[in-house]
Amino acid sequence: MTNMISYSTEVQEAIEQKKPIVALESTIISHGMPYPQNVETAREVEQIVRDNGAVPATIALMDGHIKIGLSDEELELLGNSPDVAKVSRRDIGQLLATKKIGATTVAATMICAELAGIRVFATGGIGGVHRGAETTMDISADLEELSNTGVAVVCAGAKSILDIGLTLEYLETKGVPVIGYQTDEMPAFYTRHSGFPLSYGSQSTEELAAILKAQWSLGLKGGAVIANPIPQEHALDKDFIDGIIEQAMAEAKANGINGKEVTPFLLGRVKELTEGQSLVANIELVKHNAKVGAELAASYGAL
Ligand code: PSU
Ligand code: MN
């Protein structure tokens, strides 16, 4: 197994020196944001992790390897090639065997992070139960992964292209803790409020780390969602963004978009319809998650 995993020098040294490490996903780069903002953001996010006391490990599949930590050239390749695959759990073996380039989703990044011994992962938003899932059965593999794989995912909640209430129900059934960071309410990605209360909100990364430690020390399988709302100054107006999401979803339906194409299609259309405002908000919330992720990794490492 180990010869399929390759570490960047920075991450290798961090492992040897037992420094805190934060995993970062790559689908957000390849399919979640347009070029060149995607690559710029990826580099800025890595720097924020460093500035807050941890080492970034952006994860992707290339040349038959799971790469833990990417060079500038590798990031550029991910952000600016048309044929990067979106890789979830089911795709990992195929991508490695065929040596193609794959960007890892939340699910696949969690798997790779766990293989590398990394416990904290920061991203934008998780996948979830899509609206209308009672007929389409479109439920992201991210949710199953959260119930199986021991990695904490710092995110700004799930955006309202999803059914946030059903996503929370699913996570509850699967025994996944969803813990607010300095909030008692599930955030809704572009906005701070969804109206759905969480069972617990924590004020400090020290306490979050202690919660994770208790869960994993008992051998309780699975990860956790650390729900960290977008900073107020970058939040979008709820009615504005909800209207646009409705329109993008209607277009997805009219165009027969389904399967793994749904999330990238909706993200792209929302960006166009907001004239880029959603992209700015998305970038800012990812940066904030990177900061909290670094602080959480440092707190966890100090236990
Ligand atoms: N949500 C976002 N931006 C993203 C994604 C989700 O706000 O880029 C990506 C993540 O990689 C997530 C994936 O794991 O989409 C979920 O895709 P699906 O719904 O096909 O499982
Ligand atoms: Mn899906």
From TrEMBL:
<dbReference type="GO" id="GO:0005737">
    <property type="term" value="C:cytoplasm"/>
</dbReference>
<keyword id="KW-0456">Lyase</keyword>
<dbReference type="GO" id="GO:0046872">
    <property type="term" value="F:metal ion binding"/>
</dbReference>
<dbReference type="InterPro" id="IPR007342">
    <property type="entry name" value="PsuG"/>
</dbReference>
<feature type="binding site">
    <location>
        <position position="106"/>
    </location>
    <ligand>
        <name>substrate</name>
    </ligand>
</feature>
<feature type="active site" description="Proton donor">
    <location>
        <position position="25"/>
    </location>
</feature>
<feature type="binding site">
    <location>
        <begin position="140"/>
        <end position="142"/>
    </location>
    <ligand>
        <name>substrate</name>
    </ligand>
</feature>
<dbReference type="GO" id="GO:0046113">
    <property type="term" value="P:nucleobase catabolic process"/>
</dbReference>
<dbReference type="InterPro" id="IPR022830">
    <property type="entry name" value="Indigdn_synthA-like"/>
</dbReference>
<feature type="binding site">
    <location>
        <position position="86"/>
    </location>
    <ligand>
        <name>substrate</name>
    </ligand>
</feature>
<comment type="subunit">
    <text>Homotrimer.</text>
</comment>
<keyword id="KW-0479">Metal-binding</keyword>
<comment type="function">
    <text>Catalyzes the reversible cleavage of pseudouridine 5'-phosphate (PsiMP) to ribose 5-phosphate and uracil. Functions biologically in the cleavage direction, as part of a pseudouridine degradation pathway.</text>
</comment>
<dbReference type="Pfam" id="PF04227">
    <property type="entry name" value="Indigoidine_A"/>
</dbReference>
<dbReference type="GO" id="GO:0004730">
    <property type="term" value="F:pseudouridylate synthase activity"/>
</dbReference>
<keyword id="KW-0326">Glycosidase</keyword>
<comment type="similarity">
    <text>Belongs to the pseudouridine-5'-phosphate glycosidase family.</text>
</comment>
<feature type="binding site">
    <location>
        <position position="138"/>
    </location>
    <ligand>
        <name>Mn(2+)</name>
    </ligand>
</feature>
<keyword id="KW-0464">Manganese</keyword>
<protein>
    <recommendedName>
        <fullName>Pseudouridine-5'-phosphate glycosidase</fullName>
        <ecNumber>4.2.1.70</ecNumber>
    </recommendedName>
</protein>
<keyword id="KW-0378">Hydrolase</keyword>
<dbReference type="GO" id="GO:0016798">
    <property type="term" value="F:hydrolase activity, acting on glycosyl bonds"/>
</dbReference>
<feature type="active site" description="Nucleophile">
    <location>
        <position position="159"/>
    </location>
</feature>
